[in-house]
Amino acid sequence: MHAPPPRVRRRRAPAGRRMHGWARDRPDAPSPADSWVYQLSGYTDDGLGALAAAEQETAVIDLARDGGDDYFTADEIGALHEAGKTVYAYFTIGSIETYRPEYPAVAETDLVLNHWDEWPDEYFTAYWDERWWDLVVRPRLDQAIAAGFDGVYLDVPNAYEEIDLSLVPGEDRESLARKMVDLIVAVDEYAEAAGADLAVFPQNAPELREYPGYLEAIDGIGVEDLFFLDQDVPCDEDWCEENLEHVRAISAAGTTVLAVDYAREAANIETACERYGEEGFYGYVTGVDLDRIDEPCTAQSASPATQR
């Protein structure tokens, strides 16, 4: 399988129950030093040795080193655990990329909906259909559990905002949002039924907190672009403040927030890191390609060019 293209999500204008890993042992509000690392490609020597040596205690990585079917093994994830890391498996739940191993089977169905214009190899899907669960979500959960990941980091819950409504007669944004929450709840229930202590972290769409069952099903949320858009552009659109208010409410409910902003200018890195500390979020500032390991906030502020 070829390596996946660089990954980073865009947050459009918006239409804890239990604590896992490092979060459970940290009752105080996070400081900028309480960082995490987010890498979806560019793994050194196709392995995780560089991540094991990274200063951050928590890592979000793809299920597979190549974005395909060359999955990280239980031994590799175990080595990260031995290095003191908590590790979450990234995958999408509202879309399918053409390079993923499940794509051929999904493409034979009517689950594939409109193309995501920002991503030439990605399509939104009928994520509420049982076949989507059987073909994609459940196998990915099984893979994450078998490899020993501490949790799953679920991208594209904002699919409910982006699906072409003409392709799904009878649906509207409200019904699609409810069905996305139902899917996230199903992920949590499946992990619990399997006896897996698997944390659930959706990425973006924090407004889903307003739907019953959502906050009870998640252990945290990942959020992009809280303070800087891609890349080094201050987030000062009207939706930026609304997005931040939703994230604050989630944090106030006792749920972990993993924030990531895309910036390379030293002043912007320092600003983002300061804001994480003020808000009590775990933060990471990196480049849009998510193909490198940047230093934690405190180190980046001093030397933003440093990387592994």
Secondary structure layout plus pairing:
Blueprint: H1 21-24, E1 37-39, H2 49-53, E2 58-62, H3 74-82, E3 86-92, E4 95-97, H4 103-107, E5 112-115, E6 122-125, H5 130-147, E7 151-155, H6 159-162, H7 173-193, E8 199-202, H8 214-217, E9 220-224, E10 228-229, E11 233-234, H9 238-252, E12 256-262, H10 266-279, E13 282-286, H11 297-302
Parallel strand pairs: 1-2, 2-3, 3-7, 7-8, 9-12, 12-13
Antiparallel strand pairs: 4-6, 5-6, 10-11
Task: Write up this protein.
There is one protein chain. The protein has 308 residues and is an alpha/beta fold. It has one domain: Aldolase class I (TIM Barrel, Alpha-Beta Barrel). Helices cover 34% and strands 18% of the residues. The chain contains 11 helices and 13 strands. The chain has helices at 21-24, 49-53, 74-82, 103-107, 130-147, 159-162, 173-193, 214-217, 238-252, 266-279, 297-302; strands at 37-39, 58-62, 86-92, 95-97, 112-115, 122-125, 151-155, 199-202, 220-224, 228-229, 233-234, 256-262, 282-286. It has a 5-stranded parallel beta sheet. Strand 10 (228-229) and strand 11 form a beta hairpin. The protein is globular, with a radius of gyration of 18 Å. 46% of the residues are buried.
